[in-house]
Amino acid sequence: MTPDRPRTSISAWRPPVPGIAEVFHAHFTDHAYPAHTHDTWDLMILDAGSVDFALGRHRHGATGNASVLLLPPGVPHDGRTVTESGFRKRNLYLDDSVLPQHLADRAADTPVLNDQLLRGRIDQLHSALVHPGDGFEAESRLSFIRERLHLHLAALQPRTPGREANRLAVQLRELLDARTQAGLSLHEAAATLHAHPTHLIRCFKQTYGLPPHAYLTGKRIEHARRLLLDGHCPAEVATTVGLHDQSHLNRHFTRHVGTTPARYQRTRTGSYPTTS
Fold first, then answer.
1. Cβ distance 90 to 113 under 8 Å?
2. Which of 41, 25, 66, 74 shows the shortest CA–CA distance to 146?
3. Using one digit for the tens of pLDDT, what is the confidence trace for 52-88?
């Protein structure tokens, strides 16, 4: 096995999110990919540097953090650095439940997409994927990425919420309220309510002013506050309210309340000031 070259850094994992076969983050300074193919779609964003690659019979390039690269399954491609500083990239390998194989030919014609909205959504998805326990948020963000990619490849316009928006939103809220601890997947909610995932999210946000994953997290934090003031330890509270672990609780609790669960809990004895 050939050892990693100097200054190369790589991390890869398989998240529990349907449709994502692998997440791959890397910094390459002098690596060159040989020509190869994937069984999956390769959705890539650059965080720094430039990359030059061939896809099929044509060469392409991308620089900086403005573009999205979409390489279809089954089409040979390579890749190489352009400058001495190399490039930093984040890849999502997506199966055909996200994009069907029949769109591969269209993707091969224009693999570089100049779409800031899509790029921002992919960045947000990567941020969710690095935190265990944020699967509902990741699934929701992937659904909007899928919709945006279909807009590029198949010219499918998203549906605008209509008169059914409030009804679907109320039904989804009832599902979330009943499953606050156990949670549920976006796919399960969409199947239960017979609605497309992105349409369901839009209906919920139009009715309640925030996406369903944010609503669910807020419910869990409210429950956590009550348990902490009752004297339960943060590690126990995290699993009780449906969060992955204490680190997951700390991150969301601090964002919502402005202090950590442990500091918040100490306020009940008066031994810690209420301002952080």
1. no
2. 41
3. 898 988 898 888 888 899 999 999 988 888 888 889 9
pTM of the model: 0.85
Place of tokens 């194989």: 101
| AA letter at 90 | R
Read off φ and ψ for residue 234, nearest 5 degrees: -55, -40
DSSP 3-state of 242: coil
For the chain, give the percent of residues with pLDDT over 70.
94
Residue 233 half-sphere exposure, CB side, CA atoms within 13 Å? 4
Report the C-alpha gap between 107 and 76 in whole angstroms.
13
132 exposure class (CB count in 10 Å sphere: 0-12, 13-18, 19+): middle
